[in-house]
Amino acid sequence: MQRKNKTLGEFIIENQQEFQYSTGELSKLINAIRLAAKVVNHEVNKAGLVDILGAAGETNIQGESQQKLDVLANEKFKQTLQNREIVCGIASEEEDDFITINSQDEQHQNKYVVLIDPLDGSSNIDVNVSVGTIFSIYRRVTPIGSPVSLEDFLQPGVNQVAAGYIIYGTSTMLVYTTGHGVNGFTLNPAIGTFYLSHPNMQFPETGRIYSVNEGNYTHFPQGVKDYIKYCQKEEDDRPYTSRYIGSLVSDFHRNMIKGGIYIYPKSSTAFNGKLRLLYECNPMAYLAEQAGGRASDGYRRILEITPTELHQRVPFFCGSRKMVEKAESFMAQYA
Ligand SMILES: O=P(O)(O)OC[C@H]1O[C@](O)(COP(=O)(O)O)[C@@H](O)[C@@H]1O
Ligand SMILES: [Mg+2]
Ligand SMILES: [Mg+2]
Protein backbone atom coordinates (compact mmCIF):
# COMPACT_ATOMS: atom_id res chain seq x y z
CA MET A 1 0.00 0.00 0.00
CA GLN A 2 1.36 3.45 -0.98
CA ARG A 3 2.29 5.77 1.90
CA LYS A 4 -0.09 8.72 1.94
CA ASN A 5 1.24 12.26 1.77
CA LYS A 6 4.22 11.50 -0.38
CA THR A 7 4.49 14.15 -3.06
CA LEU A 8 3.59 13.48 -6.70
CA GLY A 9 7.23 14.15 -7.61
CA GLU A 10 8.42 11.45 -5.18
CA PHE A 11 5.75 9.05 -6.41
CA ILE A 12 6.74 9.55 -10.06
CA ILE A 13 10.42 8.83 -9.34
CA GLU A 14 9.64 5.83 -7.13
CA ASN A 15 7.32 4.34 -9.72
CA GLN A 16 9.72 4.86 -12.59
CA GLN A 17 11.35 1.59 -11.50
CA GLU A 18 8.11 -0.20 -12.47
CA PHE A 19 9.26 0.25 -16.08
CA GLN A 20 12.24 -2.02 -16.73
CA TYR A 21 13.74 -0.05 -19.58
CA SER A 22 12.57 3.33 -18.35
CA THR A 23 14.45 6.31 -19.79
CA GLY A 24 12.66 8.73 -17.50
CA GLU A 25 10.85 10.27 -20.49
CA LEU A 26 7.40 9.27 -19.21
CA SER A 27 8.26 10.66 -15.77
CA LYS A 28 9.29 13.98 -17.35
CA LEU A 29 6.03 13.99 -19.28
CA ILE A 30 3.86 13.41 -16.18
CA ASN A 31 5.87 16.13 -14.43
CA ALA A 32 5.13 18.55 -17.28
CA ILE A 33 1.42 17.74 -17.06
CA ARG A 34 1.63 18.39 -13.32
CA LEU A 35 3.14 21.82 -14.01
CA ALA A 36 0.55 22.74 -16.66
CA ALA A 37 -2.19 21.61 -14.27
CA LYS A 38 -1.00 24.09 -11.66
CA VAL A 39 -0.86 26.91 -14.20
CA VAL A 40 -4.41 26.18 -15.42
CA ASN A 41 -5.64 25.71 -11.84
CA HIS A 42 -4.40 29.21 -11.05
CA GLU A 43 -6.38 30.62 -14.01
CA VAL A 44 -9.53 28.64 -13.16
CA ASN A 45 -9.48 29.80 -9.54
CA LYS A 46 -9.50 33.46 -10.48
CA ALA A 47 -11.92 33.04 -13.38
CA GLY A 48 -14.51 35.41 -11.91
CA LEU A 49 -11.99 38.19 -11.45
CA VAL A 50 -10.34 38.37 -14.83
CA ASP A 51 -11.69 38.35 -18.36
CA ILE A 52 -11.62 34.61 -19.01
CA LEU A 53 -15.29 33.77 -18.62
CA GLY A 54 -17.59 33.40 -21.59
CA ALA A 55 -17.09 32.50 -25.21
CA ALA A 56 -13.88 33.14 -27.12
CA GLY A 57 -15.86 33.89 -30.28
CA GLU A 58 -14.45 30.92 -32.23
CA THR A 59 -15.80 27.44 -32.87
CA ASN A 60 -13.73 24.26 -32.78
CA ILE A 61 -13.72 21.53 -35.45
CA GLN A 62 -16.73 19.97 -33.72
CA GLY A 63 -18.76 23.12 -34.26
CA GLU A 64 -18.76 23.90 -30.53
CA SER A 65 -18.34 27.49 -29.40
CA GLN A 66 -14.96 27.63 -27.71
CA GLN A 67 -14.95 29.14 -24.22
CA LYS A 68 -12.08 31.49 -23.35
CA LEU A 69 -10.91 29.00 -20.74
CA ASP A 70 -10.96 26.17 -23.33
CA VAL A 71 -8.53 28.23 -25.43
CA LEU A 72 -6.39 29.31 -22.48
CA ALA A 73 -6.09 25.79 -21.03
CA ASN A 74 -5.22 24.48 -24.51
CA GLU A 75 -2.47 27.08 -24.90
CA LYS A 76 -1.00 26.38 -21.43
CA PHE A 77 -0.80 22.60 -21.97
CA LYS A 78 0.59 23.01 -25.50
CA GLN A 79 3.25 25.52 -24.39
CA THR A 80 4.32 23.43 -21.39
CA LEU A 81 4.73 20.29 -23.50
CA GLN A 82 6.31 22.07 -26.51
CA ASN A 83 8.83 24.02 -24.41
CA ARG A 84 10.06 20.84 -22.76
CA GLU A 85 10.37 18.86 -25.98
CA ILE A 86 9.20 15.67 -24.29
CA VAL A 87 6.58 14.64 -26.81
CA CYS A 88 6.71 14.27 -30.56
CA GLY A 89 3.06 15.17 -31.09
CA ILE A 90 -0.05 16.59 -29.43
CA ALA A 91 -3.72 16.22 -30.35
CA SER A 92 -6.39 18.30 -28.62
CA GLU A 93 -10.15 18.81 -28.61
CA GLU A 94 -9.43 22.46 -29.42
CA GLU A 95 -7.08 21.78 -32.38
CA ASP A 96 -8.41 20.71 -35.79
CA ASP A 97 -5.38 18.54 -36.51
CA PHE A 98 -2.52 17.02 -34.52
CA ILE A 99 0.57 19.13 -33.84
CA THR A 100 4.06 17.86 -34.57
CA ILE A 101 6.76 18.74 -32.05
CA ASN A 102 10.25 18.51 -33.54
CA SER A 103 13.01 18.13 -31.00
CA GLN A 104 15.90 20.60 -31.50
CA ASP A 105 18.26 17.73 -30.59
CA GLU A 106 18.24 15.66 -33.80
CA GLN A 107 19.75 12.70 -31.94
CA HIS A 108 17.02 12.50 -29.43
CA GLN A 109 13.62 12.20 -31.02
CA ASN A 110 10.80 11.65 -28.56
CA LYS A 111 8.64 8.54 -28.45
CA TYR A 112 5.40 9.74 -26.83
CA VAL A 113 2.28 11.46 -28.19
CA VAL A 114 -0.29 13.15 -25.95
CA LEU A 115 -4.02 13.60 -26.53
CA ILE A 116 -5.84 16.15 -24.35
CA ASP A 117 -9.21 17.59 -23.53
CA PRO A 118 -7.77 20.80 -22.09
CA LEU A 119 -10.97 21.89 -20.38
CA ASP A 120 -13.70 19.34 -19.74
CA GLY A 121 -17.14 20.49 -18.67
CA SER A 122 -17.01 23.77 -20.59
CA SER A 123 -20.71 24.46 -20.02
CA ASN A 124 -19.94 24.74 -16.29
CA ILE A 125 -17.06 27.25 -16.49
CA ASP A 126 -19.17 30.40 -16.10
CA VAL A 127 -21.30 28.98 -13.29
CA ASN A 128 -18.47 27.99 -10.94
CA VAL A 129 -19.13 24.25 -11.12
CA SER A 130 -16.13 21.90 -11.15
CA VAL A 131 -14.40 21.31 -14.48
CA GLY A 132 -11.35 19.30 -15.50
CA THR A 133 -8.60 18.39 -17.93
CA ILE A 134 -8.22 14.88 -19.42
CA PHE A 135 -5.01 13.40 -20.89
CA SER A 136 -4.00 10.20 -22.66
CA ILE A 137 -0.44 9.12 -23.55
CA TYR A 138 0.76 6.62 -26.20
CA ARG A 139 4.13 5.46 -27.43
CA ARG A 140 4.38 6.37 -31.11
CA VAL A 141 4.06 3.51 -33.66
CA THR A 142 6.01 5.19 -36.43
CA PRO A 143 9.84 4.98 -36.24
CA ILE A 144 11.55 7.49 -33.93
CA GLY A 145 13.07 10.26 -36.03
CA SER A 146 10.45 9.93 -38.78
CA PRO A 147 7.63 12.49 -39.08
CA VAL A 148 4.80 11.95 -36.61
CA SER A 149 1.65 10.76 -38.38
CA LEU A 150 -2.06 10.28 -37.74
CA GLU A 151 -1.53 6.57 -37.03
CA ASP A 152 0.49 7.52 -33.94
CA PHE A 153 -2.76 8.96 -32.54
CA LEU A 154 -5.35 6.55 -33.94
CA GLN A 155 -4.38 3.73 -31.58
CA PRO A 156 -6.85 1.58 -29.62
CA GLY A 157 -7.11 2.53 -25.95
CA VAL A 158 -5.44 -0.71 -24.85
CA ASN A 159 -2.16 0.78 -26.14
CA GLN A 160 -2.20 3.70 -23.69
CA VAL A 161 0.90 3.92 -21.47
CA ALA A 162 -0.71 6.45 -19.15
CA ALA A 163 -3.95 8.39 -18.71
CA GLY A 164 -5.47 10.73 -16.18
CA TYR A 165 -7.41 13.83 -15.35
CA ILE A 166 -7.16 16.96 -13.28
CA ILE A 167 -10.31 18.08 -11.48
CA TYR A 168 -10.59 21.75 -10.56
CA GLY A 169 -13.19 21.44 -7.81
CA THR A 170 -13.51 22.06 -4.08
CA SER A 171 -9.90 20.97 -4.14
CA THR A 172 -7.70 20.40 -7.16
CA MET A 173 -6.70 16.81 -7.77
CA LEU A 174 -4.59 14.97 -10.34
CA VAL A 175 -5.65 11.35 -10.78
CA TYR A 176 -3.71 9.05 -13.10
CA THR A 177 -2.58 5.54 -14.03
CA THR A 178 0.44 4.08 -15.80
CA GLY A 179 -1.14 0.64 -15.83
CA HIS A 180 -0.33 -0.10 -12.18
CA GLY A 181 -3.53 1.02 -10.50
CA VAL A 182 -5.02 4.49 -10.07
CA ASN A 183 -3.70 7.08 -7.61
CA GLY A 184 -5.08 10.52 -6.70
CA PHE A 185 -3.06 13.53 -5.59
CA THR A 186 -4.47 16.68 -3.99
CA LEU A 187 -2.87 20.08 -4.52
CA ASN A 188 -1.86 21.98 -1.40
CA PRO A 189 -2.42 25.47 -2.84
CA ALA A 190 -0.37 27.11 -0.06
CA ILE A 191 2.82 25.48 -1.29
CA GLY A 192 1.81 24.41 -4.81
CA THR A 193 2.56 20.73 -4.22
CA PHE A 194 0.43 17.69 -5.07
CA TYR A 195 0.31 15.09 -2.27
CA LEU A 196 -0.85 11.47 -2.50
CA SER A 197 -4.31 11.65 -0.88
CA HIS A 198 -6.15 8.79 -2.61
CA PRO A 199 -3.82 5.77 -3.02
CA ASN A 200 -5.00 2.83 -5.11
CA MET A 201 -8.46 4.19 -6.00
CA GLN A 202 -11.08 1.51 -6.65
CA PHE A 203 -14.58 1.68 -8.16
CA PRO A 204 -17.01 -0.02 -5.78
CA GLU A 205 -18.31 -3.09 -7.63
CA THR A 206 -21.77 -1.55 -7.62
CA GLY A 207 -23.39 1.65 -6.40
CA ARG A 208 -26.61 3.69 -6.14
CA ILE A 209 -25.87 6.69 -8.37
CA TYR A 210 -26.73 7.07 -12.06
CA SER A 211 -25.48 10.03 -14.13
CA VAL A 212 -27.18 10.76 -17.46
CA ASN A 213 -28.69 13.89 -19.02
CA GLU A 214 -32.35 12.86 -18.70
CA GLY A 215 -33.30 15.97 -20.64
CA ASN A 216 -32.51 13.92 -23.75
CA TYR A 217 -34.62 10.95 -22.56
CA THR A 218 -37.07 10.92 -25.48
CA HIS A 219 -34.18 10.61 -27.94
CA PHE A 220 -32.43 7.74 -26.10
CA PRO A 221 -32.23 4.13 -27.36
CA GLN A 222 -34.89 1.87 -25.78
CA GLY A 223 -32.18 -0.01 -23.85
CA VAL A 224 -31.12 3.18 -22.08
CA LYS A 225 -34.74 4.18 -21.38
CA ASP A 226 -35.33 0.75 -19.83
CA TYR A 227 -32.17 1.02 -17.72
CA ILE A 228 -33.21 4.47 -16.42
CA LYS A 229 -36.63 3.03 -15.51
CA TYR A 230 -34.83 0.17 -13.76
CA CYS A 231 -32.75 2.68 -11.73
CA GLN A 232 -35.92 4.58 -10.73
CA LYS A 233 -37.99 1.52 -9.76
CA GLU A 234 -39.00 1.04 -6.06
CA GLU A 235 -37.41 -2.40 -5.68
CA ASP A 236 -34.43 -3.94 -3.76
CA ASP A 237 -31.84 -1.18 -3.18
CA ARG A 238 -33.53 1.07 -5.72
CA PRO A 239 -34.52 3.71 -6.64
CA TYR A 240 -30.96 4.93 -7.22
CA THR A 241 -30.01 8.60 -6.88
CA SER A 242 -29.71 10.72 -10.01
CA ARG A 243 -26.60 12.94 -10.05
CA TYR A 244 -25.44 14.75 -13.20
CA ILE A 245 -22.89 17.58 -12.95
CA GLY A 246 -22.43 17.92 -16.69
CA SER A 247 -18.63 17.66 -16.40
CA LEU A 248 -17.50 14.14 -17.33
CA VAL A 249 -14.43 14.37 -15.06
CA SER A 250 -16.52 15.37 -12.03
CA ASP A 251 -19.28 12.80 -12.59
CA PHE A 252 -16.63 10.08 -13.13
CA HIS A 253 -14.66 11.12 -10.02
CA ARG A 254 -17.74 11.06 -7.79
CA ASN A 255 -18.86 7.70 -9.15
CA MET A 256 -15.38 6.22 -8.66
CA ILE A 257 -15.42 7.21 -4.99
CA LYS A 258 -19.08 6.45 -4.17
CA GLY A 259 -20.05 3.80 -6.78
CA GLY A 260 -22.13 4.74 -9.79
CA ILE A 261 -22.57 4.75 -13.55
CA TYR A 262 -22.19 7.55 -16.11
CA ILE A 263 -23.96 7.21 -19.46
CA TYR A 264 -23.75 9.43 -22.52
CA PRO A 265 -25.58 7.29 -25.09
CA LYS A 266 -26.14 7.77 -28.77
CA SER A 267 -29.52 9.36 -29.50
CA SER A 268 -31.72 10.33 -32.40
CA THR A 269 -30.12 13.79 -32.20
CA ALA A 270 -26.52 12.67 -31.60
CA PHE A 271 -25.92 9.52 -33.64
CA ASN A 272 -22.67 8.57 -31.91
CA GLY A 273 -23.32 10.37 -28.65
CA LYS A 274 -21.26 13.44 -27.73
CA LEU A 275 -18.04 12.29 -26.07
CA ARG A 276 -14.81 11.91 -28.05
CA LEU A 277 -13.15 8.48 -28.12
CA LEU A 278 -9.50 9.57 -28.12
CA TYR A 279 -9.27 12.23 -25.42
CA GLU A 280 -12.35 11.62 -23.28
CA CYS A 281 -13.56 7.99 -23.45
CA ASN A 282 -10.25 6.10 -23.86
CA PRO A 283 -8.44 7.77 -20.93
CA MET A 284 -11.49 7.49 -18.63
CA ALA A 285 -12.02 3.86 -19.71
CA TYR A 286 -8.35 3.03 -18.93
CA LEU A 287 -8.71 4.61 -15.47
CA ALA A 288 -12.03 2.84 -14.88
CA GLU A 289 -10.59 -0.58 -15.73
CA GLN A 290 -7.43 0.06 -13.69
CA ALA A 291 -9.77 0.87 -10.76
CA GLY A 292 -11.84 -2.30 -11.18
CA GLY A 293 -14.67 -0.61 -13.09
CA ARG A 294 -15.92 -1.11 -16.64
CA ALA A 295 -16.34 1.06 -19.78
CA SER A 296 -18.15 0.25 -23.04
CA ASP A 297 -20.20 1.81 -25.83
CA GLY A 298 -23.11 -0.27 -24.57
CA TYR A 299 -21.83 -3.33 -26.40
CA ARG A 300 -18.04 -3.24 -26.98
CA ARG A 301 -15.18 -2.56 -24.58
CA ILE A 302 -14.15 1.06 -25.29
CA LEU A 303 -10.42 0.21 -25.12
CA GLU A 304 -10.75 -2.29 -27.99
CA ILE A 305 -12.34 0.14 -30.43
CA THR A 306 -9.95 0.99 -33.30
CA PRO A 307 -10.17 4.74 -33.90
CA THR A 308 -10.63 6.04 -37.44
CA GLU A 309 -10.76 9.81 -36.84
CA LEU A 310 -9.10 12.21 -34.41
CA HIS A 311 -12.35 13.71 -33.10
CA GLN A 312 -14.69 10.71 -33.48
CA ARG A 313 -17.47 10.31 -30.92
CA VAL A 314 -18.70 7.13 -29.25
CA PRO A 315 -21.55 6.27 -26.89
CA PHE A 316 -20.15 5.92 -23.35
CA PHE A 317 -21.21 3.67 -20.46
CA CYS A 318 -18.70 3.83 -17.61
CA GLY A 319 -18.46 3.14 -13.90
CA SER A 320 -19.04 0.39 -11.34
CA ARG A 321 -18.65 -2.95 -13.10
CA LYS A 322 -21.99 -4.52 -12.09
CA MET A 323 -23.94 -1.36 -12.99
CA VAL A 324 -22.37 -1.13 -16.48
CA GLU A 325 -23.01 -4.85 -17.04
CA LYS A 326 -26.65 -4.31 -16.05
CA ALA A 327 -27.03 -1.39 -18.47
CA GLU A 328 -25.40 -3.49 -21.22
CA SER A 329 -27.89 -6.30 -20.54
CA PHE A 330 -30.71 -3.87 -21.33
CA MET A 331 -28.95 -2.65 -24.48
CA ALA A 332 -28.42 -6.28 -25.60
CA GLN A 333 -32.20 -6.80 -25.68
CA TYR A 334 -32.44 -4.45 -28.65
CA ALA A 335 -29.12 -5.26 -30.38
O1 LIG B 1 -24.65 19.10 -21.62
P1 LIG B 1 -24.60 17.66 -22.03
O2 LIG B 1 -25.10 17.43 -23.44
O3 LIG B 1 -25.25 16.75 -21.06
O4 LIG B 1 -23.05 17.26 -22.10
C1 LIG B 1 -22.27 17.25 -20.94
C2 LIG B 1 -21.02 16.49 -21.27
O5 LIG B 1 -20.30 17.20 -22.27
C3 LIG B 1 -18.99 17.54 -21.82
O6 LIG B 1 -19.02 18.84 -21.30
C4 LIG B 1 -18.09 17.44 -23.03
O7 LIG B 1 -16.81 17.87 -22.74
P2 LIG B 1 -16.21 19.31 -23.13
O8 LIG B 1 -16.76 20.28 -22.16
O9 LIG B 1 -14.76 19.06 -23.00
O10 LIG B 1 -16.60 19.60 -24.55
C5 LIG B 1 -18.71 16.53 -20.72
O11 LIG B 1 -17.78 16.96 -19.78
C6 LIG B 1 -20.08 16.37 -20.08
O12 LIG B 1 -20.23 15.16 -19.42
MG1 LIG C 1 -14.70 17.03 -22.46
MG1 LIG D 1 -13.18 20.20 -23.50
Please summarize what this structure is.
Its EC number is 3.1.3.11. This protein has 335 residues and is α+β, with helices and mostly antiparallel strands.
Describe this entry's structure for a reader.
By secondary structure, the protein is an alpha+beta fold. The protein folds into two domains: 191 residues, Fructose-1,6-Bisphosphatase, subunit A, domain 1 (Fructose-1,6-Bisphosphatase, Chain A, domain 1, 2-Layer Sandwich); 124 residues, D-Maltodextrin-Binding Protein, domain 2, CATH 3.40.190.80. Helix content is 28%, strand content 22%. The chain is built from seven helices and 15 strands. The strands form three sheets. It has an eight-stranded mixed beta sheet with strand order 4-3-5-6-7-8-9-10, sandwiched between helices. It has a five-stranded mixed beta sheet with strand order 12-11-13-15-14, sandwiched between helices. Helix 1 packs antiparallel against helix 2, helix 2 runs antiparallel to helix 3 and helix 4 packs across helix 7. It is globular. The N and C termini lie far apart (42 Å). 47% of the residues are buried. Bound molecules: 1,6-di-O-phosphono-beta-D-fructofuranose and magnesium ion (2 copies). The site of 1,6-di-O-phosphono-beta-D-fructofuranose has 11 residues, from strand 5. The site of one magnesium ion has 6 residues, from strand 5.
